[in-house]
Amino acid sequence: MNGQMKRYKESLAKMPEPILLSQCPKIKLDLRGLMEYAKEKGVRVIELTEKEKAAFIRE
After folding, report:
1. Cβ neighbours of residue 56 under 8 Å, at least 6 residues apart?
2. Sequence-separated (6 or more) residues with CB below 8 Å from residue 9
3. To the nearest 10°, the Cα dihedral for 52, 55, 57, 54?
């Protein structure tokens, strides 16, 4: 095994366990509405405030 493969296997060993989809909280996001809202404001979605983004999340 060469050094690159060894570093790869070591990095895999350090990775946390993956999170299963069934473990994620059940929320719904109106992505289309969020994108349209950002477009109307003339900004990118990432530039919206957390409060503005939260308006499009339904649990």
Report:
1. 29, 30, 31, 33, 34, 37
2. 1
3. 40
- For the question of whether the overall pTM of this predicted structure is more than 0.70, the answer is no
Please compute, for residue 35, the number of CA atoms within 13 A of its CA located in the half-sphere on the CB side.
4
Fill in the amino acid letter for 45: V
Residue pLDDT, tens place only, 1-53: 688 999 999 998 999 888 888 888 888 999 999 999 999 999 999 999 999 99
Cα–Cα distance, 39 to 37 (Å, whole number): 5
